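Below is one protein, fold included:
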Amino acid sequence: MAARACGLIVYRRLQPAASSRPADGIEYLLLQTSYGTHHWTPPKGHVDPGEDDLQTAFRETQEEAGLQASQLTLVEGYKKELHYPVRGKPKTVVYWLAEVKDCNTEIKLSEEHQAFRWLKLEDACKFAEYEDMQATLKDVHQFLCSKE
């Protein structure tokens, strides 16, 4: 049985300069773990008994980043599943996409993370070392740009 985790790829839109494209104002939230290799990742975590996947994604985002569901807008039409091995066992992670309603909302980290950053796509891909996460961020960005 594959381990299952769920999370939200959280983004914000800054007011872009008049000369730039709206996509230039998009920044993604990444959290740096306080364990292991201190990798950077969107908020995510394991599904608890009795929870559905989306409930898990919102709960984990609240626990890890201090963002309440009421502070986020879930973006319809985007859901991504990643599959990869962790310590030799299969893992599935399901991500949805959510925008913070107020781009100045405070992030409150749990003990699981030691830092956070709001990053433009290029920098977010540098911080997210895993290729599948880089591809997911690019996919999200393309999805958001196609909606403008």
